[in-house]
Specification:
- The protein is an alpha+beta fold.
- Helix content is 48%, strand content 14%.
- It has three helices and three strands.
- It has a three-stranded antiparallel β-sheet.
- Strand 2 and strand 3 (52-58) form a beta hairpin.
- Helix 1 runs antiparallel to helix 3 (112-122).
- The radius of gyration is 21 Å and the shape is elongated.
Length: 126
Amino acid sequence: MRRPMIDAAARKAGYEKLRDDLLEIRTRIADIEATADSPDGLISATVVGRGELAELYLDPRIYRATDSKALAESIVDTIKDAVARSREDLFEITREYLPPNAKLANTDVHTDAFIHQLDKKIEGEQ
């Protein structure tokens, strides 16, 4: 049984395009900035890139409450909300590289887009 001929130039061009796309995506990811506020408006968290905490604002009124556990939970929840927003932005950036039926809820936005594209290359699709 004969193996199909591999067009080395086409394969190289495909990999170069994927590399260029990844470099552009990396730049766009670096530009992500998402902010979330706590329901009471006393806490604000801003994350950048892939969800790294860049800024945390605590309104001085938070010190009026003595429940440090509730305060900590509110801070964590606010940061999680900001990370979720950045994840949505990342999903949109990588959307064109994902399968058409991809959903944010079950997609690893950090790797699935690239694995999908590599799978296409391995299978010989352009």
